[in-house]
């Protein structure tokens, strides 16, 4: 299982890569493994301002549907267009081509409240 050191993590199994005032967000390798084969990603919040922990979309796997939660507050600038035709990209490359949204953070200090890789591994027992 892959846990990149340069990312931040949430208790809801989202990851965040910070690039200046932009946050790129997806779900962790652990989360995609627990969900199984992802068949559909529904994110209809592009252009919306969402608060920390609000739902920004859903991910549908063969066995379940899960909400996706905002790790930080901000405006959803972009939804990964590849996920429409290739939702399994989340399974194959959750930290790369399987990213979900790009957000302009409204409160970058919220990043300090996210988990380090060590904190996240402890949460999931790895």
Essential attributes:
126 residues, alpha+beta, OB fold (Dihydrolipoamide Acetyltransferase, E2P), 6-stranded antiparallel beta sheet, 3-stranded antiparallel beta sheet, 35% strand
Explain how this protein is built.
The chain is an alpha+beta fold and 126 residues long. The chain has a single domain, classed as RNA polymerase II/Efflux pump adaptor protein, barrel-sandwich hybrid domain (OB fold (Dihydrolipoamide Acetyltransferase, E2P)). Helices cover 18% and strands 35% of the residues. It has four helices and nine strands. The protein has a six-stranded antiparallel beta sheet. The protein has a three-stranded antiparallel beta sheet with strand order 4-6-7. A hairpin with a 3-residue loop joins strand 6 (55-61) and strand 7 (65-69). The longest helix has 8 residues, at 117-124.
